[in-house]
Amino acid sequence: MSDLPGIVITGASGRMGQMLIRTVSDSDKARLAGAVERSGHEWVGQDLGTAMGGAPNGVIVTDDPLEAFSGAQAVIDFTAPAATVEFARLAAQARLTHVIGTTGMSDEHIAALKPCARHAVIVRAGNMSLGVNLLTQLTRKVAAALDADWDIEVIEAHHNKKVDAPSGTALMLGEAAAEGRGIDLEQNRESGRDGITGARQRGAIGFSAIRGGDIVGEHDVLFAGLGERIVLRHVATDRAIFARGALKAALWGQDKAPGEYDMIDVLGL
């Protein structure tokens, strides 16, 4: 077991953190090497298994990420943008593979990852599932085949606790559509419609967000032309798909050169 890659989970108490912990713990290809929570959190200093309501597992939750990283080969991080940037710096120091599923990252946050990628493998994706990454590839191909007379709208739905919109996956799909068309997403993005907005701009890529209940994640890419529509769709019913993808990325990164990668690289799509 000690020969297996050790993986640290940040944001251990969160919804995704706990799913990641269960996924790594159940894997025969990796071992759970540590769990990190923010300073002052009630889980800090507790046995992780006990904190999650089960049997002790010998992993003590810490608020010192560098300490946790020192005994590991990878870190999986679905936290918040500022925390992710700091984890990236520490992961680079420890030469860990850093798998990032954090959403809501600004251009400044993303730029701050580049120096870290000179020393460590960083795999960052708005979505870790195979299905969504296939959808991304399809979106790029369809957008390339259709001209600006076809309106593109990315429609996403998530649970009522999600704090950012559009989702990271929606932005990933929008970026794929923009790449297919050979345009810049930020210069052609349309979202947050309310009131008298005027007619839709020709060639714009629109975003619509729905929040409610316990929706895990639903994404539609709508191509609307005159008299016809094309809809590409992915529905997630279990967030374990994201945890399995993140674990796959952490294992994939073990023999790779430092640099920035995404799930398209991991999946070989």
CATH topology of the largest domain: Rossmann fold
Alpha carbon gyration radius: 20 Å
Strand order of the largest sheet: 2-1-3-4-5-11
* CATH homologous superfamily (4th level) name of the largest domain: NAD(P)-binding Rossmann-like Domain
Q: State the end-to-end CA separation.
A: 31 Å
Overall shape = elongated
**CATH class category of the largest domain:** Alpha Beta
Weakly predicted, low-confidence segments: none
Number of helices: 9
Overall number of structural domains: 2
Oligomer: single chain
The helical percent reads: 25-40%
Total number of strands:
11
What is the SS-derived class?
alpha/beta
Mean pLDDT score = 96
User: What fraction of residues sit in β-strands?
Assistant: 15-25%
Taking the sheet with the most strands, its summary is: 6 strands, parallel
What is the CATH architecture annotation of the largest domain? 3-Layer(aba) Sandwich
One letter per element, helices H and strands E, the order comes to: EHEHHEHEHEHEHEEEEHEH
